Amino acid sequence: MEFARFKYPTLEFLRTDLAARGLTLPLSDDLSALAKPHEIKGKKVHNRIVYQPMEGCDGTKSGSPDELTIRRYKRFAQGGPGIVWFEAVAITQDGRANPRQLYLTENNLDDYKKIVQDIKEDCFKSNGFEPLIFMQATHSGRYSKPEGTPAPIIAYNNPVFEGDKPIDASCIITDDRLKELEIAMAASAVLAEKAGFDGMDIKACHRYLNCELLSAYTRPGMYGGDFDNRTRFFRNCQKAVTAAVSGDFIVTSRMNAYDGFEYPYGFGVTEGNGLAADWSEASKLVSLLHNGGMDIVNITMGNPYVNPHVNRPYDQGGYTPPEHPLEGVTRMMGGIAEIQAANPDVQIISSGYSYLREYAANLGAGMLETNGCAYVGVGRINFAYPDFARDAVRGIVDKKQSCLACGKCSQIMRAGSTPGCVVRDSEVYMPLYKEFCMQ
Question: pTM score > 0.90 for this model?
């Protein structure tokens, strides 16, 4: 089976191929919906484009933003999104995914104050407004490598990831330690607010610890088994964070609605139905989070390490996907639209646009027009085309700057370097790609 390449010279070609495949996406010729302002808890959002958290693995050993981190956010700020969703920041040292993952502490608080202020100032200078900035707070769980070697902390053993070599049971996190992490999450929120972030994301996606607990059907005790137990850590974190910050601080989450693994090893599926997505638990969880005061939720799916075609359909990658990329995009948009419909009072951010290149803006506008979401979240596009938001809200998107879904940014990260766009930002990242991926 060969990779399905992107081959759509016009929007009509794309519409024709979708129809031939029996797929439907709300593609709009009018991009004006992207430019409409909105509001979250009394704070103005100047357009509907969100720059998703794109981790650079380029902080300092102590956890502060470093030179490439600062460069990346300057480019993002100048690009003019309504919301900058700042990348994963560890809540504990043992929860860092690599030695250069960002880690906010009392000791480096001033470094974060500076980058937040710089993002706001750079965006204002280039676009005439300040974006909202949310910090993504994380514990990497089974992907923890604080010293550069695997040091997994898992919710339960999972053969999807471990195969016939299960991780030692001593690495399964205890209930008592999870209670401590709930406190650590709140402490990170206090620091995030001091740093000037407008809000914080309790990360629950892509099979990091909080996400993995959502599918902990086989885990005994108060954090596993039924829905209430599997979501307990998440909900407790929300309560702890909300109690620790001011009423102006926005508490949110980027969460998986579907993992893409069969029961009992994936969230968003039901027993006996294979990989078929079921949005009921995700919709229920969003409703519970909203009842706890969460007014905005960022929805994603899949696992970037095992089934990346689910959350970021691509032209080229480590394996040939079992489906056409447009099927993945359609599942993403359809699921998000269902969750939004079930939770009309929650502002849902959608994901998964980058495969469509210059037509990502048409799909985003269509999702907004059909009330499939409240905001359009773009990820890989940011690396390739940091000015995407500014151009899209003006109604003009340059295909020569768009992401090519080639997977090279991920290759660099997997090889242990700092990811970025090898094609569009080649001066910085091509040398790294050659060094780490072409030996």
Answer: yes
Provide, for the chain, the percentages of residues in helix, strand and coil under a 3-state DSSP scheme, each rounded to the nearest 5.
40, 10, 45
Do 383 and 438 have their domain in common? Answer: no
Q: How many CB atoms lie within 10 A of CB 169?
A: 9
User: Is 167 a domain residue?
Assistant: yes
Q: Same domain, yes or no, for 20 and 164?
A: yes
CB 284 within 8 A of CB 28: no
Domain that includes residue 103, residue range: 11-398
Check which CATH number belongs to the domain holding 38 and give it.
Answer: 3.20.20.70
Residue 153: inside a domain, yes or no?
Answer: yes
pLDDT tens-digit map of 152-180: 999 999 999 999 999 999 999 999 999 99
DSSP for 350-384? E---GGGGGGHHHHHHHHHHTTS-SEEEE-HHHHH
Nearby residues of 111 by Cβ (< 8 Å), 6 or more positions away? 64, 65
Report yes or no on 5 lying in a domain. no
What is the CB-side half-sphere exposure of residue 80 using CA atoms within 13 A?
18
CA–CA separation, 14 vs 329, rounded Å? 13
Same domain (yes/no): 329, 428: no
253: phi then psi, degrees, rounded to nearest 5: -160, 145
Residue 393 shares a structural domain with residue 411: no
Same domain, 432 and 315: no
Q: Tell me if 66 sits within 8 A of 59, measured CB to CB.
A: yes
Question: Per-residue pLDDT tens for 253-309?
Answer: 999 999 999 999 999 999 999 999 999 999 999 999 999 999 999 999 999 999 999
Question: Any residues with CB less than 8 A from the CB of 430 and at least 6 apart, and which?
Answer: 422
Do 374 and 306 reside in the same domain of the chain? yes
Phi, psi of 299 (to 5 degrees): -100, 135
Angle between helices 280-291 and 232-244 (to 10 degrees): 20
